[in-house]
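Quick log. Single chain, no ligands specified.
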Amino acid sequence: MKKWILAASLCCNVAFAEVAVIVNPSNGDALDKDSISRLFLNKAKAFPSGTQAEPIALEESAAATDEFNGKVLNKTAAQLTAFWSKLVFTGKGQPPKALSSDADVVAAVAANAGAIGYVDASAVNDSVRVVATF
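-> predicted structure:
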């Protein structure tokens, strides 16, 4: 019995990597969880300063995507699929462009003043600015 409890506690204490939400360094906007969520769910199209926002996501298979979707968007992968299917079908929106790696997202955000993305926090470098971590 003691071995089972130890195994269960070890299993359940697995920590997920921290997700960093990043913007171009020229973007001075302060963003909270709600404003980030609104940008990624097509409910807001610009940063508070008025700069057009271009959300950039990681592919669905990335661990950071599950973390971001759950902690920031409060949605599962299935809920997001249904959400975007409805918006695309009605012509009211397109999901964020999805890139295949953290490095690709960092490079895209560094190259675009209006970009916002998320990556594993360990992938952040000086070419982008972190606005939040989850």
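The longest strand covers residues 115-120.
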